[in-house]
Amino acid sequence: xxxxxxxxxxxxxxxxxxxxxxxxxxxxxxxxxxxxxxxxxxxxxxxxxxxxxxxxxxxxxxxxxxxxxxxxxxxxxxxxxxxxxxxxxxxxxxxxxxxxxxxxxxxxxxxxxxxxxxxxxxxxxxxxxxxxxxxxxxxxxxxxxxxxxxxxx
Length: 153
Ligand code: DAT
Ligand code: MG
Fold this sequence. Notes:
This protein is about 40% helix and about 15% strand. The protein is α+β, with helices and mostly antiparallel strands.
């Protein structure tokens, strides 16, 4: 099916650096379909919920401080295998390992300030969980993209 949804977010560094358009452009050009978007400020509580899996890590406090330091562009993107596709486009967490051509490999240099978040495809249910955390059902749009038959055979 072509309707897997995944949660994607341009982080505060990406917003401040004027990379929202660049990042949306890459996802659009790939053929993915936008299902929801919200320009917003993450508060402490939401940051703790979103990054709960990292609560015990030494970098957790810095991560919460960073993700709440300015607005983010929270989005839901849809497509076949969308979660894994977006992770491939993002590149690895460590920018020193991220391949050129990936979003992090092209736009980031720092392990913490790495421009984009995408749901982990190796954590089943992470996409749905994160979408639920950031969006109400009525904030997501079901629509037909007219080029779908030219994107998918
Ligand atoms: P990803 O964002 O690729 O899913 P993650 O879930 O392991 O990576 O970590 C979440 C974020 O936390 C990551 O984007 C950047 C930050 N982070 C991860 N490991 C870190 C480390 N060792 N030192 C500092 N920040 C780190
Ligand atoms: Mg992760």
